[in-house]
Amino acid sequence: MKQPIKGFSKLSKEGKIEWLVNEHFENPEEARELLKEYWHSNEKRQQLHDDFIENTMTNYFLPFGVAPNFLINNQLYTLPMTIEESSVVAAASKAAGFWLKRGGFKTEIISTTKVGHVHFNYAGSFETLSTLFEDWKPKFYEETEELTANMRARGGGILSIALVNKTDVLENYYQIEARFETCDSMGANFINSCLEQFAQVMRADIELRTDLSAEDRDLQVVMCILSNYTPECVVRAEVSCKVEELNDDKDVSPEEFASKFQRAVRIAEVEPYRATTHNKGIMNGIDAVVIATGNDFRAIEAASHTYASRNGQYSSLTHCKVENGVFTFWIEIPLALGTVGGLTKLHPMVKLAHEMLGDPNSETLMGIVAASGLAQNFAALRALVTTGIQKGHMKMHLFNILNQLEATPEERDAIVKHFTDKVPHHNLVVSKFCELRGIPVPKSGVNKDK
Ligand code: HMG
User: Could you tell me the keywords of this UniProt record (predicted)?
Assistant: First the structure.
């Protein structure tokens, strides 16, 4: 039975690796070699990566691809995309190329406000609390002046502070809800620092209120934290063209395509099973650019899915209409992104991604990321309502299957050629590979994946 370890974090990197490989691997030499094989050859770069997180052993590579031809608000972009899934970059590129000839993507920032809360318990009367809050409010601003000075100089800062009574959902539960403008930063540290200062003001003040009854002084701050749900930090991206300009696919008329496409979006609007997959496809594009540009994709994912449920049922993040012969397809999504702070100036590949995009500010990046999600969804739906998803996806996935099979370069060439006009389903590729090698097809096949 494995034993827990105390003080692991205090071991040197070598010490951690030794413990890990000896504790968890049948062949420690092989595991050690692999971990070290993925170290960066440049020590300074490796140190940088070691310091991003804790207990770093090695690096974990994800491909960094690019999708060219994104015309967004009449500017041409090449999007950086960091993702492991085949066909996503190709799909984004194909959709970008399609819309390039039809006016491109138009984006609009709806708002950029972020929110944070001091969550607290209060046993006294709401009336007393409201009076206390009126006293605290100017102090919240005064006592965060130093913290907010730079943000205010950039045009941001605290936008509003309100007391929220949540006792209808939880006994004695109240919030100080503050709204912030954090300009080009994602703002988590700024917001959390302000909130913690508010809590200090509350605690200090309540201590001094000896004039109040014990109940009216009974206040406990539970926590101070920003919310990753940002329904007031929202961007819209849109594509549109005349229906007759819609499809260059000869098998389906533009009218039939528009109708099936619109229906597919409608299904995602009303059916959570489909909405989840539909939005997953959108997040293929969103996450890839968010990761490449050094932003927090967990926060973006969490906000998107809450937003997708804001009307009481999980629904599509994209929408489509056909009016007066014009097809319009759009996304509205909360994207609290930063172009300063965090990894943006630290990770060399993130810096490169930002430079590739012309060092956008956060609002421009919001538009770019939204366009990437919309493009991805367009490509997936286009495939789904015409050829089916497997044809294109498996074409892109073929190399992963060939890598699993450890095909030689000659075998790869022969198999790629063979599947030029056929869908390379996993079992068909395995059969072809076995035929080329003159070996029997294994009963269990090779590990199947998507
Ligand atoms: P195609 O028409 O066979 O490709 O499409 P093509 O060879 O004719 O090339 C057309 C363009 O596609 C190229 O233009 C590229 O822009 C791009 P060009 O560069 O030649 O001027 N393209 C590529 N880009 C980079 N590398 C490549 C490459 N090949 C084509 N190797 C394609 C093939 C896969 C693009 C198309 O079938 C497609 O868009 N399919 C959709 C794929 C998709 O959505 N994948 C996401 C993963 S599946 C999923 O997880 C989501 C899903 O469940 C979501 C949902 O249900 O809504 C589907």
Answer: NAD, Oxidoreductase
